[in-house]
Amino acid sequence: MLQIKDLHANAGEKPILKGVNLSVKAGEVHAIMGPNGSGKSTLSHILAGREGYTVTRGKAVYQGKDLLALTPEERSWEGVFLAFQYPVEIPGVSNKYFLKACYNAARKHNGLPEISSGEFLKRIKEKAKLVEMNPALLDRFVNAGFSGGEKKRNEILQMAVLEPKLAVLDETDSGLDIDALKAVAAGINKMRGPERALILVTHYQRLLDYVSPDFVHVMVDGRIVKSGGKSLALELEKEGYGWAKEAQAAAA
Amino acid sequence: MSQILERRGGLLASLDRVKDAGLPSLGSGGPDALRREALEGFLKTGLPGAKDEAWRLTNLAPIAEEPFSLPEKPAPVLEAQARAALSVWLPSRIVFVDGFFSAELSALPKEKGVEAGAWAPRLSGGADLLEKSLRLAAEGRCGLSRLGAALFQAGAYLKTEPRASLSGPVQIAFLWSASPAARMSHPLIAVELGALSQAAVVEESAVLGGAGASWRNRGAVISLAEGAQLDYCQVQAGGAARAFETTSGLLRQARDSRFHSHVLTFGGELVRNDFDAVLEGEGAQCVLDGLYVAHGQEHVDNHTLIRHAAPRGISRELYKGVLGGQAQAAFRGIIEVAPAAQKTDAMVYNKNLLLSEKGWVNTKPEFRIFANDVQCKHGSTIGRLSEDALFYLRSRGIVAERAREFLIRAFAQEMLDSVKPEALRLALSRRLGAPAEDD
């Protein structure tokens, strides 16, 4: 579904990604772990189309298409989703309305008629139940005054409504207490499926206690330095990122 | 005089015409004498210019140069046209077309303890209010208010007895018919609320079309007796044609009275709103909310002065601006706290969102504090749309243009949240672009 080959990217003059290789198939769950500043959040933003980075080498192919040539909205219509570490507040726009606007934008792109309000309402109520979200939040303004946990749960709700093919979750576990973390993880697990690939970007192993990845990658200084199975995450938890940084320094 | 004539040629020509033709008579000696006085006063000073500190940022030359004249009679406007041009059509309304009162379009409130109507130009009531209001305007420091008193043709008044409460807001609407001619009007509004009475006013100005410029120079005089409460919503709708608006308001508040205004400007080639409030009685509350949205070459200037003259007054002021194209905005919010006004609690804020490189904002909240036990806060900001927020919306499939609309709404919406009635809030909310609520 996604092939990233030798991806290099700068923020301004500063190189952030220095040759990322990653291959993700439908149905797989990948975790990308790494210390702060390793470039893992940058990678997720570049996949979703954030402006402000320059790709200097390499490519990302998504379902046979050059992903990097698409605008952020086109990527969304094609089934790419990024759950944000810091979801944005949009006072004045109701959550319900926003979700419908997003949903219909993709339908329009795919040549489908817009969904009716009644039908959509039914749909988001089901999805809210799926992610254990208080339905009252649907009538509130998008993320405005939401707690940290509510914001993250709202990201998962958006994912559930848009049903992406490839979802990248950027530090979705950060700042959550254990109950919120469990709820968010449960939502993510319900989104797993043979048609969908998930990439979990995280600093900590914590989320992986609840969402079991098929592959774990360690990212340090703009490169994936080690890949393995779920056990790699446990190793990291025990030993920290020190060894990876040292290995990286030795290689350089 | 000749110098002024040269500079203000266009305006004075029409003013002379009015003078020659005789001022519209009010049927009583008092007001007419006041108006002659105001006219003489205006001719001495002319329009305020750049030398006046309060007018440094708004140049009235475009008004002075336009050959404005007072229409001789209003053009016919159908109810359907009026309704389409206005944000709401309320059951109680006082409607003016081209500066003239329109009995056909109006529906005066008939409620116990409430006196409301139009001076248009014959007096049906409110003569005392008119004389008071005209006197204040004629003695006003600003040339615009003197000119307004001199050329006044019609206006609206609302008066309540103590403890009277209006069942719904009174709409005061000013419409310009579609016309190729440059026209002006100088209406006056007077609101006087008795003790513990309660009322709401929705004032709106709109242009129906046509290539001609229009200039509304509106004065308002408001007084609230003890414990009276007034919500005053002023909507400046702009329109396709060249709309000029200068408004000035004078407010006096007695003890424990409460005033809440919304000044909502959605367009106009040149808009200048002056508002002076005096909190004369202890514990009076004054809330001024404002929103201006300007594009193209539009210019919007809001000047407010809140004077705390008595202890324990509360004032809250927040104006927000959205500026695109080469639009210009100025904001000056002065809060003055007199030595006697201890325990004053005052805030004034101005926040601006610049959508383009060429938009321009000059903002200056200001305190003049002469008491020592007060709580006063002020601040202003000028920002741009957040790239992070735009990316967030686009990553959800919202196209860039629409995403911008969402974010403009996110910035501006709070200024409409307390607008009443609901129908007005929704209509104004729709003017912000992307819809807000599910249908």
Describe the structure concisely for a colleague:
The complex is a heterodimer of chains A (252) and B (439). Chain A is an alpha/beta fold and 252 residues long.
Descriptive account of the structure:
In chain A, α5 (148-162) runs parallel beside α6. The longest helix of chain A has 15 residues, at 95-109. Chain A contains eight helices and twelve strands. Chain A has one domain (2-251): P-loop containing nucleotide triphosphate hydrolases (Rossmann fold, 3-Layer(aba) Sandwich), CATH 3.40.50. Chain A has helices spanning 40-48, 72-77, 95-109, 117-130, 148-162, 178-191, 230-239, 242-251, and strands at residues 2-11, 14-24, 29-33, 53-62, 65-66, 80-83, 90-94, 141-142, 166-170, 197-202, 215-220, 223-228. Chain A is globular. In chain A, the strands form three sheets. Chain A has a six-stranded mixed sheet with strand order 6-9-10-3-11-12, with helices on both faces. Chain A is α/β, with parallel strands linked by helices. Chain B has 439 residues and is of the alpha/beta class. Chain B folds into two domains: 2-385, no CATH class; 386-439, no CATH class. Chain B contains ten helices and 20 strands. Chain B has a ten-stranded mixed sheet with strand order 2-1-5-8-10-12-14-16-18-20, covered by helices on one side. In chain B, strands 3, 4, 6, 7, 9, 11, 13, 15, 17 and 19 form a ten-stranded mixed sheet that branches. In chain B, a hairpin with a 2-residue loop joins β1 (93-97) and β2 (100-101). The chains are: A alpha/beta (252), B alpha/beta (439).
